[in-house]
Amino acid sequence: MDEREYVEAKRRAAGLLLAIPGVHAVGVGSKIVGGERTPQTSIRVYVTDKRPLDEIPPDERVPREIDGLPTDVVERPRPVEDQVPGIPVGTDRDDRAEYRPVRGGVRVARAAKTTGGTLGCICDVTGDPNTVIGLTNYHVIYKPPATDANEEVGQPNGQSSSSDSCDDIIGTVLDAEYDVDVDIALIKLRPGTRYLAEIEEAGVVVGIGGLPGLNEQVTKRGKTSGLTGGIVDDVGTDGDLLNADGTVKRHYEDAIQIEANPDPANPGPTNFALRGDSGAAYLNAQGRVIGIHFASVPDSGISWGMPIGAIIDKFTGVQRPSGGPTLPPARHVRLAIASAAAPGDVRTVPGAAMTAGDQPVREPITPGQARRLEEEVRSASPRGAWYADLYSRHGEEVAALVHGHRRVTVVWHRSGAAELTQWLVRAFSRHDVRVPEEIEGRPVSECLDDIAAALTRYGSAGLTADLSKALPTLPDIAGMSDREILECLKAELV
Amino acid sequence: MSDVQGIAASVRTAVAKTLAVDAVGLTRDTSFYDDLGADSLAVMELISALEDELGISLPESNEFALGIRTVGNLVEAFETRAH
Question: Do A406 and B61 touch (CB under 8 A)?
């Protein structure tokens, strides 16, 4: 019999079943006999403690059949949202690395918020080629039910800056929903952001998948537990998500339940997801996104996700295929999972405000990129190490002047120094980009002269003294690649 | 040091010149951002040009400059320091 018939029967009976004392969820899954899954599908009724039948009053017993379909009482803990503490330190693979181009499966965090979650996957928007969306959970960004518009989201840390010369912000929240169907936030990626239609470790995203079948294998990559695999254990769980104090936080319906696969190399209990994996995309064996993770029970091996179709429907306001109620029409964003035919297909969010040639240059410089540039220059030669030392000594003061002193800020932007810095960092992070010969029609050397004059005039005595020593020695980097710049630094100073 | 009437006139002239707008329509309530379409860099440049012209110094922080939203704000900032 078609599993959808079970889901329909479960939906009709859910109200009555959930009213039975001790029942915390209902769903559809394989009937379990003697601890083993059987080929028989059943309407599942989840209880925290399974008791012998003779101890249960007759009016509190689960019927053996519903609409002629068999039931199964399954003992399983109630889910607790991932952000509830409890995972012992040192038992995860916490990944706080910076990933550029941006991709799924990596850490994201709201600016100025210390906890983070996982960026599930990237979506295009049908009919709006200028908008690219990253998916994560509502509860990763907000504390339900509070929502503010346009919160900045960063990868990995949500590190913001008063100018865009050095931060890890990848976008802002376009819309977010937290209700019976979904727990989801849409992050609108910044123009100029480079991204991959891939999930770290899992590879290329092939597209969208339908509702998974029971016992189908799925994988996910979360920032805390990394790449893991599991089996679809239930395709339509209705239940309650609890706060740490046991009160109901969110009633959810039609969730997908995943049970972790065992790990042959490490016998014993396994987890599919951990706290911090919230927002991770569930992929089927074909590499299609079938859902987004939202909860797990620590060390139980069980995780819950929402079907990707419910998310897409939520933002288009269409009728649910099951014949359920029409969803409240939210913002009309027609999401389409970004897919790629082969790995390494780097794309750029259109609409960058400033371009030179066909290379967008407004993607913010991340702290990781700035650090790598400094390290490369330092290790190139004694001369490079000298420049890197000067940067270490005065970098903070220069940043404070550029961001905080009115006259330096104006020169920084008007002279083209801001754009030159972006090109330099880009050349060192991409290796296929050259510093331009001119910026806004002026030679690169003139940009440097202007900003150096402003820093000399408004900087400290120490900065001024070091600038006067360093400026005459700087190579002319106009038109150079990162390799050519490093070669220049190998020549000794006269 | 400039007199107060001279400051208002200098500000209006400088605004018209720097932002390429007609000085006739400018009032103290005219917003640089909402009415004249200026960005923060343009307002910072305007402040610096007027400092040089009037010989009056305003605080150098960006935070102060970002608080100057209208023609009236700018006139008052210079007037306060002219006395």
Answer: yes
* Number of CB pairs, chain A paired with chain B, less than 8 A apart: 30
C-alpha dist (Å) from residue A101 to A23, A170, A207, A417, A442: 46, 10, 19, 24, 30
Residues of B labelled as active-site residues: 39
Per DSSP, what are the bridge partners of residue A251? A240
What's the token pair of residue A448? Answer: 């440097």
- Same domain membership, residue A178 and residue A129: yes
Predicted structure pTM score: 0.60
- pLDDT (tens digit, 9 = 90+) per residue, A368-407? 888 888 899 999 999 999 999 999 999 889 989 998 899 9
CB-side exposure of A98: number of CA atoms within 13 Å?
18
Residue range of the domain that includes A26: 3-75
Structure tokens at A226: 């990394």
Asked if this assembly's ipTM is beyond 0.90, the reply is: yes
- Strand blocks (E) in A281-440: 281-284, 288-296, 302-307, 335-337, 347-348, 355-356, 359-360, 438-439
The answer to whether residue A357 scores a pLDDT higher than 50 is: no
8 Å CB contact between A370 and A425: yes
Minimal CA separation from B43 to chain A, in Å: 10
- A225: CATH: 2.40.10.120
Chain B residues with beta carbon closer than 8 angstroms to that of A409: 41, 44, 62
In a domain, residue A484? The reply is yes
pLDDT of residue A149: 67
When CB atoms are compared, the residue of B41, B45, B62 closest to A404 is B62
A406 contacts on B by Cβ (under 8 Å) = 44, 47-48, 60-62, 64-65
Q: Do B48 and A403 touch (CB under 8 A)?
A: no
| Distance from the B66 Cα atom to the nearest Cα atom in chain A, whole angstroms | 10
Chain-centroid distance of CA A233 in Å reads 25
Q: Which residues of B touch A458 (CB under 8 A)?
A: 60
CATH of the domain at B18: 1.10.1200.10
